[in-house]
Design goal:
251 residues; mainly alpha; binds zinc ion
Length: 251
């Protein structure tokens, strides 16, 4: 199997032994996005990058990650110009605010003028995120590469030997398959990924069962097996996160 710049992170993720290779890729993409914007390269000083962070801001999850990363001056500079723009927007909102229509007259989401309600625009502001956008761009490429690589028998074998996926990324994998799965791989794909998911959900469920059983004093002396970190792996399987990761920090 020939490796290219696009295929290396995908095949590495499938060799990582992670409970979900897409979680593995997403974490790498997230760390690289944080490093890009706040790291030693100081991209936040480049006018085009600052224009993008001013426009998109950061979501609640990534505000925290930016804080944890630890480049205080970089974060402060980004927030300073983001907030300056936001303040202007907010002043316009306050000036043009229309009281919502009386209950029952219009849809609650629209004003009498037919425009979206103020809270809806503010909510979009809160949710939009420079880092989410950057990560999403990479995730799209990873899914695309996954489906391109499926024609390689060696890669299909890596998928078969992997631990399956988390539920969040599996849902997206099925969604993307509707667009990107080559016709020749339909039988293999659907015949493989469902048993792979089920067997690995079962495996993690059994680890959880044994972790619970270990709290019984009669099992205290028995070996842990693979149950010791079952809590974080179960959380990952269900939602697609690495809850035991330490904060990602500027070194
Ligand atoms: Zn995942
Ligand atoms: Zn975000």
């Amino acid at each position: 199997m020939k490796e290219y710049i696009d295929t290396i992170p995908v095949s590495e993720a499938f060799e990582s032994g992670d409970e979900c290779p897409f979680c593995f890729m997403e974490r790498a993409a997230e760390q690289s996005a944080i490093r890009y914007v706040a790291g030693p390269g100081a991209s936040y000083m480049e006018p085009n990058v600052r224009a993008a962070t001013d426009k998109d801001g950061f979501c609640v999850r990534h505000m925290k990650k930016l804080y944890d990363y630890g480049n205080t001056l970089g974060s402060v500079l980004m927030l300073q110009t983001y907030m300056a723009g936001l303040l202007q927007e907010f002043q316009a909102e306050a000036e043009n605010f229309e009281m919502p229509p009386k209950k029952g007259l219009f849809s609650a989401k629209k004003q009498a003028s037919g425009k979206d309600a103020c809270w809806k625009r503010l909510q979009q502001r809160v949710d939009s995120c420079f880092l989410c956008n950057k990560i999403e761009y990479n995730m799209r490429r990873f899914y695309h590469t996954f489906f391109v690589l499926l024609k390689e028998p060696e890669f299909r074998q890596k998928v078969e030997q992997s631990k399956g996926f988390c539920l969040r990324h599996f849902a997206r994998l099925l969604e993307t398959a509707e667009e990107e799965l080559p016709n020749g791989q339909r039988e293999w794909f659907y015949g493989t990924v469902f048993p792979l998911m089920e067997n690995n959900l079962l495996r993690v469920k059994e680890d959880l069962d044994w972790l619970v059983a270990k709290y019984d004093y009669r099992n205290a002396g028995k070996p842990w097996g693979t149950a010791q970190d079952a809590l974080q792996r179960a959380m990952q399987k269900l939602e697609g996160l690495h809850p035991a990761d330490p904060p990602y920090q500027d070194k």
